[in-house]
Amino acid sequence: MAARYNKSIAKQKRLEEEAHAAMVEAEGARRRAELEKELALLRTTMEEACARLQLEFEKEYGDATARLQRSHRFLLSDMASAHRREYTAPRDVAASLLRG
């Protein structure tokens, strides 16, 4: 009778351990699924933030390039104008421009 009782207790213990292991596995799977969903949302958010930063950089770079080109064009125009004045001015005016 004791042997049957021990087998029954061992069987009950094994069933409880299996049920507990299944419950732990189900809880782990649920948590992993939640984490994957949260990570996917975070990844999407980060990708959108990176895209916004890239667009902002491209806009600022384009604006800076346009300003630089405009400044370069103005400098070339000023230089050409100064050369024209220097080489077409009378000698005394040209000499004073060179000194001064």
What's the shape?
Answer: rod-shaped
Distance between the termini: 123 Å
> How many strand units?
0
Structural class of the helices, strands and pairings?
Answer: mainly alpha
Mean pLDDT across the residues is: 89
Low-confidence region ranges: none
* Count, helices: 2
* Percentage of β-strand residues: under 5%
The topology string of helices and strands comes to: HH
Instruction: From the alpha carbons, calculate the radius of gyration and give it in angstroms.
Output: 41 Å
Major beta sheet summary: none
In percent, how helical is the residue content?
over 70%
Question: How would you characterize the overall build of this protein?
Answer:
The protein has helices spanning 2-88, 91-99. The chain is rod-shaped, with a radius of gyration of 41 Å. The termini are far apart. With 100 residues, the protein is an all-alpha fold.
SSE inventory with pairings:
Blueprint: H1 2-88, H2 91-99
Helix pairs in contact: 1-2
In short:
The protein is an all-alpha fold and 100 residues long.
Note the main attributes of this structure.
100 residues, mainly alpha, rod-shaped
